[in-house]
Amino acid sequence: MQKRPEWLKAKAPQGVNYEEIKALVNSLRLNTVCQSANCPNIGECWNERTATFMILGDTCARDCGFCAVKHGKPGPVDKNEPMRVAKAVSELQLKHAVITSVTRDDLSDGGAGVFAETSRLIHKALPGCSVEMLIPDFKGYDLSLKTALSGHPEILNHNIETVSRLYDQVRPQAVYWRSIELLAKAKSIKPSILSSVEGRTKSGIMVGLGETWDEIIQTLKDLREANVDILTIGQYLAPSVNHAQIAKYYTPEEFSELKRLCIDMGFGYVESGPLVRSSYKASY
Asked: Is residue 262 part of a domain?
């Protein structure tokens, strides 16, 4: 295994806001992707009062080669979970809440209804807090997408994760073009559903899994053609030896070049860096 470069070292999470959010999340029995996915930015984000809540349990129905979230047979849906998430957001006075989930292929709507209810309750409990939905692909079902968007999120996020060629290896139960089409469809129906005037959509990609530079550029072009506004690009870090291994560490200079190319393509906002994750600086 390659030695991790100096620029990939994150600060240990600490601070008053971090401890407050951690305590409340635990007391309300909530899951956060910040913890489940071992995010290196948890301290920074929580101290800025931005958190990513993971609804619909902690067990994913899919087995992606890059993900630290446990997989298997998901448990029953907790009907009180949306209310507890809204309570946490309100008590913490968050300025931006990201709602994501494990993939629930076992549910007829993929969990879209729970996304919508959670978003509605957050807006009701704390009107000043913006909501970002980071959704799974819902198997490409339009009705599930519309159901989720009926919760009127300010941002609709769905991560493309990697380039098309690596999907069989990294996301064997997903389909590259299905994800691209989901993002395009979300943007096409935004005038009546997305609450912001611009109807912002967002996606994210990891690099370092064995893709070529040209494949990255083509993926960026595909996302831009789908009218995606916001993009995150970060270094893939293998959660364990049993996950897909790192093929390359990209330098900060390469991340800067990718950001420049994205801006030239027309993306409205881009976060690109070694430790960037999908929800990094999500409130910006």
From this structure: no
Q: Which domain holds residue 111?
A: 6-201
**pLDDT tens sequence across 112-142:** 999 999 999 999 999 989 899 999 999 999 9
Please give the full DSSP string across 68-86, using - where no structure is assigned: -S-BSS-----TTHHHHHH
Strand partners, 201: 156
CA atoms within 13 A on the CB side of 157: 26
Indicate whether 58 belongs to any domain. yes
Q: Is 274 within 8 Å of 234 (Cβ atoms)?
A: yes
Q: Is the pTM of this model over 0.85?
A: yes
CATH number for 16: 3.20.20.70
Q: How many domains does the chain have?
A: 1
Question: What are the structure tokens assigned to 90, written together?
Answer: 């309100």
Q: In 3-state terms, what secondary structure has residue 257?
A: helix
With the CA atoms of 220, 225, 229 and 232 taken in that order, what torsion angle do they form, in degrees rounded to the nearest 10? -20
Percentage of the residues of the chain whose pLDDT score is greater than 90: 56
Could you tell me the CA-to-CA distances from 64 to 98, 169, 230 in Å, in that order? 21, 8, 24
